[in-house]
Write a structure and sequence with these properties.
Pfam families: Peptidase_M16, Peptidase_M16_C. Helices cover about 40% and strands about 20% of the residues. By secondary structure, the protein is an alpha+beta fold. The protein folds into 2 domains: about 230 residues, Cytochrome Bc1 Complex, Chain A, domain 1, CATH 3.30.830; about 120 residues, Cytochrome Bc1 Complex, Chain A, domain 1. Strand 1 and strand 2 form a beta hairpin. About 30% of the residues are buried.
Length: about 400
């Protein structure tokens, strides 16, 4: 490590897939760099910002779009993708989740990556956020008097779908009280029309898009020293920023408890009225309790993965099926959420599905139906092989 380098290695580990994973933190800016030295010709970058919202204005989502509209040093739309293409990258992309926003890039080799990275971070930390960009990307009224805007159009296509309405209702019930996990971070159309403003977006950026709140994850064959050298101009600009205020980490308030079980019936528009869907959700262990989380995933695989699984056997693979498909998701919030999603349930059997589902689970919990430990061993072995295969064939999944 060079004397002028601001980065200190805070953790280092060799993963089961043989990939060396190192974590560095800057003493100047507070920015975190994680490097996974995975084999392969591509270098992937994931610029992750922890974000928290307590309303449905969609500020994380709108800001994600506006970041690509130019920065103070590169104040033109499309510059980032233009530079990315010249650096042998297939453009750039991003996603917004409940507790973070992540910006992605992937280049052939490290040379283009090192050129693109400081420009990308400049867009994140110093975007222009102009009013004209807000009108174009978020919401406006077009010449025909219709609502327009890229963000608005995205939400319009999914806000009133059965899956979105039921999922949002589930989160509202699962995390009551003052809690960011129940917010629609994409933004509801009513909020995008009436309450989301560019001033709010600017304030949101100032609060969360800070170097102390930015983690840069790099996956591929790249030298850490070269990364630090490429980021030196960024570090200098951050150090000279006179407008920096004390940083308050997001997600520090306790998650309100779930006082009782809740049953909801959600009506949603559909092309037909003969089928619906059922979501059954539970609060799970803390996100840092990895052994509990992986145990729950293995248990859910055991219950749902094949036609002989208990839930599939009783609800799907019958002469008179109660649904035609089921899957599960584990949302790794600080206090996690595990939910089952049952599709194409006959409307007349919605109540029957609920009763049958809990009967099957109760039979297993009470020991009336013993766990097939031979099949459980198979499920665990398949899980291990999947993780190792994924590490080998798609090493960027480690991010």
């Amino acid at each position: 490590m060079t004397k002028s380098c601001a980065y200190e290695c805070t953790a280092e580990i060799l993963t089961d897939g043989g990939v060396k994973l190192s974590k560095y933190k800057s003493s100047k800016s507070g920015m975190t760099i994680c490097i996974a030295e995975a084999d392969g010709p591509l270098v992937g970058g994931y610029l992750c910002v922890a974000t928290e919202a307590h309303d449905d204005d969609g500020l994380p989502h709108t800001l994600e779009h506006l970041v690509f509209m130019g920065s103070e040093k590169y104040p033109y739309k499309g510059v980032l993708d233009l530079v990315a293409n010249r650096c042998l990258a297939q453009g750039t992309n991003a996603w917004t989740d409940t507790d973070h926003t992540c910006y992605t890039m992937s280049t052939a080799g490290d040379e283009g990556f090192l050129k693109l990275l400081p420009i990308y971070i400049d867009h994140l930390l110093y975007p222009v956020l102009t009013g004209s960009a807000f009108v174009t990307e978020v919401h406006s009224i077009n010449g025909e008097g219709e609502d327009a805007g890229v963000v608005y159009s995205e939400m319009q296509t999914r806000e009133n779908s059965g899956e979105s309405l039921c999922h949002l209702s589930m989160l509202r019930s699962m995390y009551p009280g003052h809690c960011g996990y129940k917010s629609e971070t994409g933004g509801l159309m009513k909020n995008l029309r009436e309450s989301t403003t560019n001033e709010k977006v600017r304030a949101y950026h100032k609060e969360f898009y800070r170097p102390e709140n930015l983690c840069v994850i790099i996956v591929g064959q790249i030298n850490a020293e070269k990364v630090f050298e490429a980021l030196e101009p960024v570090e200098e600009r951050i150090a000279n920023d006179s407008e920096r205020t004390p940083f308050v980490r997001p997600w520090q308030t306790p998650v309100p408890p779930l006082p009782e079980s809740v049953t909801l019936e959600v009506n949603y528009p559909s092309d037909e009225d003969e089928h619906g869907l059922v979501i059954a959700a539970w609060r799970g262990p803390l996100a840092n309790d990895y052994s509990q989380l992986i145990s729950i995933q293995i248990l859910m695989d055991y219950l749902t993965d094949t036609s002989v699984s208990p839930l599939n056997r009783e609800l799907v693979e019958t002469e008179d099926p109660l649904c035609n498909q089921m899957d599960y998701t584990v949302i790794e919030n600080f206090e996690s959420c595990i939910y089952l999603h049952l599709s194409n349930v006959p409307v007349k059997k919605l109540q029957e599905v609920k009763e049958k589902l809990f009967d099957v689970l109760k039979n297993i919990a009470d020991g009336n139906e013993e766990l097939d430990m031979e099949r459980m061993r198979t499920v665990i072995r398949k899980k291990k092989l999947y993780i190792l295969s994924n590490m080998e064939n798609n090493p960027r999944s480690i991010s």
